[in-house]
Each structure stands twice: as structure tokens, then as C-alpha cells.
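stage 2 :: seqdesign
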């Protein structure tokens, strides 16, 4: 399983161990369907190449389903979609993070020429920003360095998955960041699978169905996203 940690709360390293909703979910799926998982750490940019060349059977980590990606990998049934959480800001779409001292930025239309916007390279946020904004787009390998740069005044905004922004704000209460506007994209997350591994795709879908039916999925979801 290819993974790219650094995407809290979905997949990250805590005290030297992998953690996050996606890790707990996949480990629960493995236990329910009696298979073993070997995690291979990579950069997000490399995950899809690794799936295509057979380095990975599958990859997980808040991976958005898109038509472009569907052409090169298969996807399981979605495991995280809009409207699931008790609070709307856990929408899986992209959001805009700003500093609390920059109220003039109220949405995408405010990200004009002369401003600097951080994104994670290789993501749907990067694609959206690069094709939509007049502002300068500044790529980062992971979301946290981008959000750190925003808090330090080196950027004017960051576009990244909304749950990632919320998690950062919760763990960095003195950073002075907030979300502005609503979701700028509508997305869903699924596990990406090598197109030659139809057996893996079927196994993962069965396992996902099992943890949904036995209540494990709801327990994990409430643990990670039940409270703002």
C-alpha cells in the first residue's frame, strides 16, 4: 500500500508511528477480511506512477477520485464524501486557509494577481489553483509546511483539503488561521488500485463493505470527525 504521510488527520506520523483515519480504516478492513498490509512511504506526486509501474498494489491517503486519475488507476467505492460529518467543515473538498488578520480575502475571487497561494503539489488543489487563479501558485510537498508559511506571513492563502485545514487549526491554536468562504471543490476520497489488480480491488471493496456493516466505520469516523 503506497502512502504519503503528512496529511493529518487522514495519514501522518505520530511518535514514530503511522496514524490517522485512513490508517485506522485500512487496518480495520485488513482485520475484517483477513489480509495483511505492508505500507510503503512515498511522496504524493509519486503514488500514481508507483501504481502504474506495479510498485504498489494500491494507495491510500485522502486521494480524490477524478476522471483524469480514473484513466490510469481503478478506485474502490468512496469512503469519505461530502455531508457525512456532523459539522459541514469536514467536507472533503478543497478550502481556502487565510490568516485572521487578512479579512479582505473572502473566497476564490479574492485571490488576485500579486498574492501568493500555497498548495500541495500533485493534488487537486494544485490543479484547481494552477488553472483558476490569477495569484501566484506556490507548490509545497506537504500541507503542513504550506500552512506554517501562511502563519509566518510568507503566503497570503493556502488551498488544501478542508479537514486538513481544520486539523491544523486545532493542533496549532496560536497560528492565527481560519477558513474563508465555502468549499471551492466538491470531492470524494477512495483507495486507488493498480488497474491490473482486479482481485485487490474486489477484496478492498468487500472489506470496506464489511466494516461499514459491522459498525467499525462509524466508530472510526466519529473518533476522527465526530467533534469539531
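stage 2 :: out
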Amino acid at each position: 500500500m503506497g502512502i504519503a504521510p503528512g496529511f493529518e488527520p487522514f495519514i501522518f506520523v505520530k511518535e514514530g508511528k503511522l496514524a490517522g483515519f485512513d490508517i485506522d480504516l485500512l487496518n480495520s478492513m485488513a482485520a475484517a477480511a483477513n489480509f495483511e498490509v505492508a505500507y510503503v512511504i512515498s511522496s504524493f506526486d509519486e503514488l500514481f506512477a508507483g501504481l502504474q509501474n506495479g510498485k504498489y498494489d494500491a494507495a491510500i491517503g485522502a486521494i480524490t477520485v477524478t476522471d483524469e486519475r480514473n484513466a490510469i488507476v481503478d478506485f474502490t467505492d468512496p469512503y469519505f464524501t461530502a455531508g457525512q460529518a456532523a459539522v459541514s467543515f469536514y467536507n472533503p473538498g478543497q478550502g481556502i486557509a487565510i490568516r485572521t488578520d487578512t479579512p479582505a480575502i473572502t473566497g476564490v475571487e479574492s485571490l488576485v494577481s500579486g498574492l501568493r497561494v500555497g498548495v500541495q503539489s500533485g493534488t487537486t488543489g494544485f490543479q484547481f489553483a494552477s488553472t483558476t487563479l490569477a495569484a501566484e501558485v506556490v507548490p509545497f510537498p506537504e500541507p503542513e509546511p504550506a500552512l506554517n508559511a501562511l502563519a509566518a506571513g510568507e503566503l497570503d492563502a493556502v488551498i488544501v483539503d478542508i479537514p486538513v485545514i481544520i486539523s491544523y487549526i486545532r493542533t496549532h491554536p496560536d497560528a492565527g488561521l481560519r477558513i474563508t468562504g465555502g468549499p471551492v471543490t466538491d470531492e470524494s476520497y477512495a483507495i486507488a488500485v493498480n488497474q491490473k489488480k482486479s482481485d485487490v480491488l474486489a477484496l478492498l471493496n468487500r472489506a470496506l463493505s464489511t466494516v461499514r456493516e459491522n459498525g467499525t466505520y462509524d466508530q472510526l469516523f466519529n473518533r476522527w470527525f465526530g467533534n469539531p
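stage 3 :: structure notes
- The longest strand covers residues 94-99.
- The chain has two domains: 2-85+188-225, 93-180.
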